[in-house]
Amino acid sequence: MASSYLYTGAPQTYTVPSGITSINIKAWGGGGGGVGATYSGGNAAMVTGNLAVTPGEELTIKVAGGGAGFLNGSGGYVGGGTGDKTHSIDFTGGGGGGGCTIIQRGTTNLVMVSGGGGAGWYANGGYGSGDGISSAGSGGNDYINTSNTGGGGAYYPSNGGAGGIADNGGSAGDPGDFSKGGNSGDYLSGGGGSGWYGGGGGGGLAAGGGGGISLVSNLTAFTGYNGLAGVPIYGQPAGTGIGAAPSNTPNNNGGNGYVIISENSGVCFRETTRVLMADRTFKAIKDIERGDEILTDKKNGATKKVARSLKYMATGKATEIPMHLIGNRRTIVCSSTHPFWVSDTRRILAGDIEGTEEIKICEWLYTIQFEDEGTYYVEGVKVDAVSPDHRKFKLPKELYFDQTKYKANRVMKSEDDERRKKPNMTKTL
Fold it and tell me: With bands split at pLDDT 50, 70 and 90, how would you rate the model's confidence at 158?
């Protein structure tokens, strides 16, 4: 299952469900604010990776705000540097730096995703870095290329970006610091993007602020995207983390950050996988809804109602079962730990089937749950439904059609739990 968090300007809470020891995090920083019809705020960074967690613990989520555009210039939540608004007349001024998205355990920062720098009157803001070790945030542009008035990008190890120098009639920008972008100088320059360490504020005349760097060392199997370059579509709102495009509209703000947290499951299918319905028609698993009637046994025609459909964002390895390998009518892509029935008395995990391939995926996977133990058919092959007493995804009492079946303390700890009354898993066909 997945939980998503939008910008609110205040801390939010995620509670780790029972049985979950690993979650996948996808997080975007805030984009830099824009100025006028020519120059853009810098794009934020985006990171994705897995985090070890403890069931029941609470994580604090602070979703970044985008930097404000000219005539305001405020930095985005959390820690974006302020752009110049003292001289904001007509279409001038400085854009605020994008804020940093932060995920905390108590007061310990686990993940910090950098924001983009604010634009200056005559310069673009720098982008945020998605990897705080091997790549730096980019510096903001200068109004005059021979000077160093643009705010510097933050860089490893543990350094905020330098503030732009005083030149061309304007004062120096502030350097970036821990979880804070530098404020701009006093003459039409942009603020630095926040991050693990923030970018410097633009200095001198009309320079852009620098981008921050991200903290990702607590994540495993992580990928960081600098300035959102190449970020896949994960269902994030349009404009997430994007630096404000050129516009003469006052308060031309950068895009806010976003967070998706998915519990790492192990029993799911690609969205296009077809499920056999009670009337013997097929329906894509992503379209299955609560109350749908599913065929659970071809021999006796038994059916069950779906109690709920689950989905999670899978980033990593999956199993591809070629067409016809085990009687499947189409190629199946699923998690490697999903149980398949290969006879009336034998089950096997997808990853243990000889002739399958291990592939890398980054997509939503889907599965279904009944109010009791059950099976169903995908592409003509019999598979297990998620147990209603699954250790990670116990079906809530309110989703039972017959609530007398609910057992509060019953938890299935493995696919071979004897209470499921199913044959133990085999390792080979």
Answer: low
